[in-house]
Amino acid sequence: MKLAERKPWAFLDAWRGTAFTGEWPTLPEMFRISVERYPDRPCFTAFEPDRVTLTYREALAKIEALAAWFAGQGVGKGDHIAVSGKNSPEWAVTYLGAVFAGATIVPIDYGLHDHEIENLLKAASPKFFFVDEEKFAHFRNVASAGKVYSLSKSFPDEYVYNLKGGSLSKIVSPVETDLAAIMFTSGTTGTPKGVMLTHQNLVSDCYIAQSNLGIYHTDVFYALLPIHHSYTMLAVFLEAMSVGAEVVFGKSMAVSKMLKELREGKITMLLGVPLLFNKLLAGIMKGIKDKGPIVYGLIKFLMGISYLVKKLTGLNPGKKMFASVLDKASLSTVRIAISGGGPLAASIFRMYNEFGIDFIQGYGLTETSPIVALNPIERFKIESVGRYFPPHMEMKILDPDEKGVGEVAIRGPMVMKGYYNLPEETAKVLSDDGWFRTGDLGWIDGEYYLYLCGRAKNMIVTEGGKNVYPEEIENAFQLYYNDIEQITVQGYIMDAATKSEGIEALVYPADELLKKLGVMRGDTTEDDSVSLAIGDIVNTVNKTLQAYQRISKVTILTEPLEMTTTRKVKRTYAK
Question: Is the pTM of this model over 0.85?
Answer without folding.
Answer: no
